[in-house]
Structures are given as C-alpha cells and as structure tokens.
Amino acid sequence: MSISIAVMLSACGSGSDGDHNSTPASPESNSSESNSPAFTLTAFDGYLENAVVFIDKDDSTTFNTGDEFLGLTNAKGQLSLESVPQKALSLQTLVLGQSAQLYLASLDSKYTNRYTVDADRPAQPLTGEYVIQTVAGADVVSPITDLVALEIKNGADQATAITRVQQALGLNTNDDIFVDYVEGATANVKLHKTAQLLADSKVNASTKYAQNPIDFAKDAKQRVDAMSSDELKDPNFRAPVNGDVGDVDEIVFETYVDPIVAASVQEKFNSLSLVYGQKAGNSMFFFNADISKLFRDQDVQNKDLVDLLRVKNTASNYSIVDKYGNKTGLIAYITGGTLNVGMKSTEMLSRVGKFHVEIEYSAELEGTNSHLAVFEFEIKPSDDMPPQVNSATHQALQTKIYEWNLYQGVSVNDGYTVDIAGLFEGHGQNFELALNPDNDTNGLVITLDKGIVTVTGTPSKTADKGVYNFSIIATAENSKSEEVIIYLPEVKAAPANNGS
Q1: 45 close to 56: Cβ distance less than 8 angstroms
Q2: What are the DSSP E strand ranges found in 128-189?
C-alpha cells in the first residue's frame, strides 16, 4: 500500500492566507509561487480555483460557522500554507447564491463575487456546491481522496479505507491514490474521468453518496471502463451515477460554455470604463456581442442554442442587479443570439464594485441541458459619491436582530448590542455614523457609540417584525450621505405570570 502523506512537522514559509483563523484573509496572497511554503495543498476534479480550504471543526461536512478558514485555492487548485496542518483538510466549492458562498461573503465583502471554477471547464461556473475531504497530512484533495475520508467517517480505519477504495476502482494495493491524476508523471485519464463522475454524483445525491461511497466508486468505474478514448478525454462527457452497478447510468455529452466565445465576450466587458454616478444622457449601447455559439452540445451536433437565452440577473427594465436585488444601472438583454449591453437615459450607475452578468440557456432541444455562463464587470468609485451600504453585512445584521426576544411592557434589561462595523464602505473616504432621530422605535431606546448599537428600554406595543425600525446615516467627507434602515423584531404579548 502506498500513500503520499506530508511529514507532520511545523514549519515556516511564505504563501499563506494569514493567521489561519476563522477570519478570512485575502486569497490573492495564496500563491503557489511563494519562495518556500512549508505545505501546498492541491485540489482537483480538474484543478479547482477559488475553492475554500478549511478544517471542518464541527464535522458537519460543510463550511460554516466555527470552521477554521485557511484560504482560497489559486488557478492551479493550490493553496500554500506557512505550516503543515495537523488535521485533515476539507475543500468547499462555491456557487454564486448558494449557502457556502453566501456564508463566505458574509465574513468579508471582498468574497461577494467569488465562485469556484473547474479547470476542466474554465469558461463556466459549477452548478452545485459540494465538499471533498482528505486525510491528515495529505497534500492533495479530490473526489478520490474523499472516498477514503468517507469510509473512515463510516467506521473504517485509514488502511482499510484505502484498500477498499483501491479495490473499488480496480487498482493494485501499491497504486497511490493520493497523487495528482490530472497532469504530470502520475496523470491517469481514467481516474480523472472517475473523479468527474463522482463529483457530479455527490452533488446529485449527497446523503446516499456519503453513506455508500464504495458503491458509487464501483458504479463510476463501471461507466468509465465502457468509455472510448475520446469520451474519456472530453470533460463534457459526464453525468451522475446512482451507486447501483446493476443500473445502466446514461452518460451523455453535457451542454457547455464555449471558452473562445466566452473569452471574447469577457474582453468586451473588460474594455468598459464605468464609474459610479455615470449617466448616459440618451439611451446608448456600449457593445453588442454575438453569443449564438456561446452554448454548445455535441449531442445535437453543436447546433446554435439561441432560442431560450436570457440574462438571468436583471430587473424588469433590463438593469443588471447584484445578488441582493440592487440595480447597478448597466442594462443587458438578448435579441436573436446577440447580447446588448448599455445604459438607459433614465438610469445612472448606482453601485460600486465587481458584478456579474449571468446568461442562462434553458434547454429547448432534446439532448441538451440548461446551463449558465457568467461574465464580470466593474464599476469604480468616484470622488463625489456617498458611502455604500455593504449588503452582505446589512443582511447578516438584520438576521441577527430578528432573533431577539422582545415582549410588550417587559424591560430589555441589559439590552441588546450589535456591532455595525463594515455596514458601510467609504471607498477611500472617511465617514461618520449617526442615528436618525426621527425613527419610531416603539418605546425602545437606541444608542450608537463607536460603531456599537445598543437597544434598551421597554416595548410599548405588540408588533410584527418590521413594523418598527431605526436607521443609521453615514456621512462622508464630501458631505454625501447614505441611510440604511434596520427593522426591529416581533414584539410579543407579555407572558402570563403564573406565579401569583
């Protein structure tokens, strides 16, 4: 039995993502090109970029509160650390708008638009989030190492788990499964294809997969063994398996995003020069792009898939919105296979940051499947703009406040407090915070001191959540201001006093 496990020693080096606590640091520091990293983890199905590496402290097999965040992987699926981790590492993929991606964005707004890309299909986002794990000391994590981790979680010791996985995949006991099967001397096209099927299967049936990983491994192997050389090499020839070797799972060519067309469209977005407050004067187009060949599928001889294309993330007036529904001011719509991007005379660019345009193909031809292409553009700040509300922080604060327990006529005793640091972003300008004195707070006393809001007093009336509120005003050095409303929770009737 062979296994490539890093020596469990503490060491120093560059290329880390910070102090490795639960507060994320910049993923840009996670370079595999650092001079002497003590440890480099490589993650793949194909190489997975912008995936979360973490220590699963609560053993929940998902990235959430309390887990130790180590960083995001780079374009080669790698994360370098200053010391060798003493515990098994987990990897969480990110899909825009799904739970792990939203949780990461809530920790730091710079992650708002981060999502995982598989180098096997670099022009398109993943369609579902999943977690894969490895064993302590291993410097690779993949759907293959995940089989071992799941077997251990299901009661096997590590040596037995490795042997079971090797047998399920038709490998010899001296075949190392803790290697990079994508490239280099240990590349293995069948293991690579097996990993693609396993990743899709885990997204499709996560509970069953976790309970019976060896059954899924055997089923995937059976499907892979029946593939031709061309099918093995094509990253779009894939589908989930169900873990039953008695069933014949149909493997087909999936609809995919053409990387050349996608790169051409992204170049057009990159050429835009957009600044907060910008107005068009008259309705205008910045560019038109032919996207008739953006989505392709070999099952329909690569016919142009144009009949059911739409820009997914727009308001009714075609204005592109962020994931919180805020209009950006840029418009995008599709006519006859052409993407049109511009501005209306009634709109202005009203957000700052990096945003996405999501183009969706809804399968109208038999043999194709719905798919998504994502493009990025940036609106830069101006000197004459107010502070911007951080929507992720605002949402997290509102969720926390709605959890408070308030009762009519009952004092809040020591009060509730919330830290509003990060609620506003100045984009280079300092700003001051103040409470709006005109809010009706239902008898509660709201104070603000050094970024901490304290709520005391006694609610006067019963009320549904959202009926009463308070608001915070941020005023920048340029005298521009922005106000955000925070709603108060439900006020229930006072509980009966049964002790009298």
Answers
A1: no
A2: 131-133, 140-141
Predicted confidence at residue 304, as pLDDT, reads: 84
- pTM for the whole structure: 0.79
pLDDT digits (tens, 9 = 90+) for 119-130: 999 999 998 999
Intra-chain end-to-end CA distance of the chain, in Å: 73
158, containing H or E segment:
helix 158-168
**What CA–CA distances, in Å, run from 53 to 49, 105, 112, 148, 201?**
11, 15, 17, 18, 21
Q: Model confidence over 14-41: pLDDT tens digits?
A: 333 333 333 333 344 444 444 667 899 9
Q: How does strand 274-275 pair with strand 371-380?
A: parallel
Of 354, 359, 356, the closest CA to residue 333 belongs to 359
Asked whether the domain spanning 388-492 has the same topology as the one spanning 256-380, the reply is: yes
CA 313, 314, 318: angle at the middle one, nearest 5?
155
Q: At residue 176, what is the residue type?
A: D
Q: Phi/psi at 55 (nearest 5 deg)?
A: -105, 120
Query: Closest by alpha carbon to 324, among 97, 75, 11?
Result: 97
The CATH number, out of the four listed (2.60.40.10, 3.40.50.720, 2.60.120.200, 3.30.70.1050), of the domain defined by the range 388-492: 2.60.40.10
The Cβ of residue 101 has, within 10 Å, a number of other Cβ atoms equal to: 25
Query: Does an H or E element contain 68, and which?
Result: strand 68-72
In the chain, where are the structural domains located? 27-253, 256-380, 388-492
List of long-range contacts for 323-328, beta carbons under 8 Å, 24+ apart? 323/96, 323/97, 323/112, 323/391, 324/391, 324/392, 324/395, 326/350, 326/351, 326/391, 327/351, 328/355, 328/379
Provide, rounded to the nearest whole percent, the portion of the chain with pLDDT above 70: 92
CA angle (13, 17, 18) in 5-degree steps: 85
327, two tokens: 């209009």
Best CA proximity match to 65, nearest among 102, 109, 17: 102
Question: 96 with 69: CB under 8 angstroms?
Answer: no
The answer to whether the beta carbons of residues 91 and 116 sit under 8 Å apart is: no
Which amino acid is residue 354, in one-letter code?
Answer: K
Topology of domain 256-380, per CATH? Immunoglobulin-like (2.60.40)
Cα angle 394-395-396, degrees, rounded to a multiple of 5:
95
Which uninterrupted H or E stretch holds 43?
strand 39-43
